[in-house]
Input
Amino acid sequence: MLELDGVTAAYDSTPILRDVDLSVEEGEIVGVMGKNGVGKTTLMKTIIGLLEPSDGTISYAGADVTDAPADERARAGMGYIPQGRDVFPKLTVEQNVRMGETVNADSEETLYDDIYGYFPVLEERADQQAGTLSGGQQQMLAIARALVSNPDLLLLDEPSEGIQPSIVDQISDDMQAINEDLGTTILFVEQNLGVIREMADRCYAMERGEIVDEVGPQKLTDEEAIADFLAV
Amino acid sequence: MVNGLNLLFQFLDSFAFIVLAAAGLAIIFGIMGVINLAHGEFIMVGAYATTLANIRGGLPLPVAMLVGVAVTAVFGLVVERVVISGTVPNALSQRFLGRKVIEPLYDRLADSMVATWGLSLIMVQGVRIVLGNSLDQIGTPLGNIAYSGFSYSTYRVLLSVVALGVLALTYYVFTRTEYGMRARATIQDEDTARALGVDTERTYMTTFAIGSGLAGLTGALYAPTITMVPGLGSSFLVEAFVAVVVGGPSVVLGTTLAGGLLGAINAAVTNLFGTFFGRIALLVTAIVMIRFLPDGITGFVETVRERRQEGA
Output
């Protein structure tokens, strides 16, 4: 469904991507593991189209989207949840969700009524300004906003960053439920290994802008393989 | 009694003038981060188009005014594509030089000021060359309201009603329509808006056209009351800037409050000491505001609100 082939990208002070090959199959939850500053966010921004790769190709759903702007990729079915949530602080919770609904993807499809089933707390706070929510709630709102148009691929940038562990667990459960119920393919980057093991079917490891290892589904539960993986 | 009425009408008149002069500028500044120093010349385009359509084209005044608005909005669209976003020159240079030559002027305050100032010079001189030093003027329609010793132009009273209408409509557009939501989302976080599928280019284009259309409306409405010279825009620009500085970042609320405050100051001082001192009072107010409330009235309100939320 998503295929990166030799992607190289850099922009001002953002960390560099070097010759990244990566693929995600339909229905999978794929994690990319890496420490701060290895280029995880650069990777996500390049995939959604906020950064232009200087080399390589990105194909999505069988089409080459390397030169397509972000809004076009969003309408083609990619949903993006930026690092640090980035909700629109001065719009209400409901308006934030509606933003995702009105513009994401060309279809008429909306999951507006279903979304609050996953995140009931957002319904209680529908009229509140999004900037006043807690970190965990903002993360849920950012997920809801991306999810409401029923994207085929969700890109999730460090869902656990700056959020209480109990909420992190809840969010990874929610993501798995969403993957199961809606068939949404999920690609996420994370430095918290617990979250990766909890959520991912498959995982890449990233270091200094390069993909250095890949761990398959059977091995993600295997302690020894994980230890090897961590040693990279 | 007569003096009281005089003061009231003077206030309505100043309020309408400030709000109408500032609305287009405030929208373009608030949403795109572009300071349009050619704003006064956009008003001039509206006034000239209206006058030409009415006097030379023979169209009835209300229709001529709509022509003025439409011409200015389309002109604004062209300016946005050529000067502000650089899309047209970039497409050309991409074709002939193989690279882009212009970075868009969004959120580049100083750069956008220089570019639009240059544009304003070209516009004033261009109009002077093509149409001469002045145009015939449309007479002020609708006559006067008279009450014992007091008399005031009905048309100018109508203008204050229109000013309120413009504020209400702007509020509606930016809070209740899909375009308004996209525009606000784009200001708050452009990247995220794009990643959600908002065509931010089109949002900017629409915004600039709306702001220009409002400038055109101001020109059209004031065309019957002012002398038609190519430099007529400068008398609007000062008031518009003072209003944006005093009002702060919130487009509708800021413009309303600034219009109210400055209108009151201007009316009172003008009534006591004459027009000249009325304008000086506006500038003094702007200087005092910049010193004590650098983010304008709404910026101050915002800071207080944030502080209170943090405390809660």
